[in-house]
């Protein structure tokens, strides 16, 4: 008993306090909307989950573990102006514990199936279900996993992977240090990884409305295209080889590491580059 008391006094002498047991807390609110809403969600340290719900309402929920929700702890700042909703979840900068307990923040947002989204996390993962609109997802240090996003789509992570299925529309996805795996019907496709592999499955009905670009600094690129897909192909790898399942009408010279030519008579530009990896283009 005396030993424990002395240990506590010693820790407090250095400005530290033994943490109290983990505290769970929850905040929630429902918003009514009449048209296609625009929704902005931002947290500096937490995961964000997006799911489709009713057409005329938005449901927001913040769940914490190890932290309370209050103006001095995890602070929820929200507002609504017509069909525009903003939700900001801030974690305290001074927060410090001396324990091995689990602490987390999770933001859950249920939105109409047709919604414009601006989703940002400084340090967390983002998961999303089927939503159509102008959608931007940005995380500084986390993964992006999505299913069924349609519309004008912009996905960015500074240090994590991007993966998803059933995309439809224009997709721009980039990762500073992670792999990218996507599947869907595309009009515009831009995929970039600083240090990871890229896997792209392009479904029937896709077309190059403007130039497509796939690039990785250090990884391989595998791309599957539907039969009959047409493009002007420019593929290059610094330290790898290129393999094709499609016949290509070559323009100029050809080598294992550089091909420029037409797929199925040519079309929009399809540029594929890898600094240090192989490139494979195959049929679905």
Feature tags:
single chain, 284 residues, mainly beta, 23-stranded mixed sheet, 1 helix, 23 strands, disordered N terminus
Can you walk through the features of this model?
The chain has 284 residues and is mostly beta strands. It has 1 helix and 23 strands. The chain has a 23-stranded mixed β-sheet that branches. A hairpin with a 2-residue loop joins strand 5 and strand 6 (84-90). The radius of gyration is 24 Å and the shape is elongated. The termini are far apart.
Q: Termini distance?
A: 70 Å
Oligomeric composition of the shown chains: single chain
Overall 3D shape: elongated
- Main β-sheet, in a few words? 23 strands, mixed
Protein topology:
Blueprint: H1 2-13, E1 24-32, E2 38-43, E3 47-52, E4 57-65, E5 75-81, E6 84-90, E7 104-111, E8 116-121, E9 126-128, E10 131-139, E11 144-147, E12 149-157, E13 162-175, E14 180-193, E15 198-202, E16 212-216, E17 221-225, E18 231-237, E19 242-244, E20 248-250, E21 258-263, E22 269-274, E23 279-283
Parallel strand pairs: 2-6, 2-8, 3-7, 3-9, 8-10, 9-11, 10-12, 11-13, 12-13, 13-14, 14-15, 14-16, 15-17, 16-22, 17-23, 18-22, 19-23
Antiparallel strand pairs: 1-4, 4-7, 5-6, 18-21, 20-21
Provide a brief overview of the structure.
The protein is mainly β and 284 residues long. It contains 1 helix and 23 strands.
